[in-house]
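Example S7 (structure tokens).
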């Protein structure tokens, strides 16, 4: 005889507390803010590093390197969160965001800015972790 487990039953779902939902929302806003806040400044930043006709190309490279880093670390962050827990990785991601944003402001070349954006993407797996906490 097989046991049937009803995953969608109300007894199987434990609601999250308001405090956890509020903290997850704040982390999500901070994460998205850190990801998007550099885009308005990129053309002005890259303008000092390259020739005028190449600005669009290098802005695209620097701007997309964050997403490439985030794509590269998604599975690794998920595996680490299963091993060490979600809270330590969320905190590490927030601290990593803070440090890389500060260092990004002091970039002296377009490739340094791209590498810093890539590292920020590597350290920033918080969106997936927040969804895992809430679900």
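Recovered sequence:
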């Amino acid at each position: 005889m097989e046991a049937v487990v009803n995953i969608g039953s109300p007894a199987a779902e434990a609601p999250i507390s308001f405090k956890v939902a509020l903290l997850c929302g704040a982390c999500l806003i901070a994460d998205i803010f850190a990801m998007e806040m550099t885009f308005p400044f990129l053309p002005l930043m890259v303008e000092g590093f390259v020739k005028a006709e190449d600005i669009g190309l290098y802005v695209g490279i620097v701007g997309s390197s964050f997403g490439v880093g985030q794509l590269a670390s998604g599975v690794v962050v998920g595996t680490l969160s299963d091993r060490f827990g979600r809270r330590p990785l969320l905190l590490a991601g927030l601290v990593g965001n803070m440090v890389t944003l500060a260092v990004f402001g002091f970039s002296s070349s377009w490739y340094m800015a791209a590498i810093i954006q890539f590292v920020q993407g590597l350290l920033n797996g918080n969106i997936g972790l927040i969804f895992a906490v809430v679900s």
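Notes on this example. The two ends are 31 Å apart (CA to CA).
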